[in-house]
Amino acid sequence: MVIVGIVLAVGGGRLISLGGSFYYLPVGIGLIISGVLLWLRRFEGALLYLLIFLATLIWAGWEVGSNGWALVPRLVGPAVLLVFTLAVSPMLRRHQYLPAFAVASICLLAITVVVFAAPHFESAQAAATPVPPVTLAVNDPSPIQTGADWPAYGGSYSARRYSPLKQINRDNVGSLTRVWDIHTGDMPVKNTKNTYGAENTPLKVGDTLYVCTPKDIIVALDPATGKQRWRFDPQVPDESIPYTAAWRGVSYYAVPDAVASQDCATRIVEGTLDARIIEIDAKTGKRCQQFGHGGEVSTAVGIGEHDPGCSRSRRRRPSFVASSSPGIRCLMDRSATRRPASSRATMRRQAS
Predict the structure, then answer these.
(1) Distance CA 114, CA 120 (A)
(2) CA pair distance 244, 194, nearest whole angstrom
(3) pLDDT truncated to tens, each residue of the chain (352 aa)?
(4) Looking at the chain, which runs of residues are DSSP E strands?
(5) Which residue in 30, 79, 69, 36 sits closest to 52, CA to CA?
(6) Rounded CA separation 17/11 (Å)
């Protein structure tokens, strides 16, 4: 108890100098005195601590009310010390008020238990009260929505990953059969063995499915047949994959008020392992020359010496589109694990 008192007194003095609570300093001094008296087997030490605990109980209720979690650091420790004091009280020099001390201590401990338990009783009572049914509806503020399309990594810009489609459900999902599959050809070689990770979320916009591979190759497919429409390879060097090549997806961007027939009216935006942002025409897979230099921008320019692959960023979420301007994030994640992955994309349909 003396040691606890010294810690509280020193810390309380510092707290007062910083404009904090005045509680800890006097309580710390009181604990020191109480501990010394108990060591001398004097009843006054037990009585003093009982008064300290009563003051602590009142102070805790005043400061945090019935907030159970906030009461824990304020009352649990002092309550344990009160139990200790009550346990050693028979060894103190006999005093006429010892029985009264024991009764008072037990009462204060009971009050402490009630203070902790009261919020739980109130919660249980509230839970037992019937609540009228409420229909909850959450509106998605994103300008793009899921449905026939999946136009963003998280479905919409709100990233809720929710699809309203109901044709496939828990009753028929087990009877799905393969319709087509494709092999992207992007497989690890000797220098990149055990560095590939399959984390791609394809985008489906209109009549095209956009798939990406670990080394940033984008493949546009016919979602009904799996036939390749175009393929774009940014030629990422193997040196940019010291950890894991795990590409999670691309972003689709429609230029506001653009004529649908013009080049790059709709674009696919990607961020590569070697720290480039690239925009390509969503219809043809050709670079958008009006973006950056030859359709790309290097984000490594001006950052000084750095490791290959966007300063050790290996797990990349797709680029994002804010307002009317496309952009990109290169996220840091050093916890990437190495695991092999197949470069296969598979579509399934309900068995007839």
Answers:
(1) 10
(2) 8
(3) 889 889 989 998 998 998 888 888 999 899 899 889 889 988 888 888 889 989 988 888 888 887 877 888 888 888 898 898 888 888 887 777 778 888 888 898 888 888 777 666 555 555 556 666 766 666 777 778 888 999 998 888 888 888 889 999 999 999 999 999 989 888 888 888 888 887 889 999 999 999 999 889 999 999 999 999 999 999 998 888 867 888 888 999 999 999 989 999 999 999 988 889 999 999 999 999 999 999 999 988 888 777 765 444 444 455 444 333 333 333 333 333 333 333 344 444 333 3
(4) 176-183, 203-205, 208-212, 218-221, 228-232, 246-247, 251-254, 266-271, 276-281, 296-298, 315-316, 321-322, 325-326, 344-350
(5) 30
(6) 10
Residues in the chain: 352
Q: How far apart are CA 271 and CA 299, in angstroms?
A: 9
Please tell me the distance from the alpha carbon of residue 24 to that of residue 292, in angstroms, as a whole number. 62
The residue whose two tokens read 């994103």 is 142
Buried b (16+ CB within 10 A) or exposed e, 163-182: eeeeeeeeeeeeeeeeebeb
272: helix, coil or strand? coil
SS3 content of the chain, % helix, strand, coil (to 5): 35, 20, 45
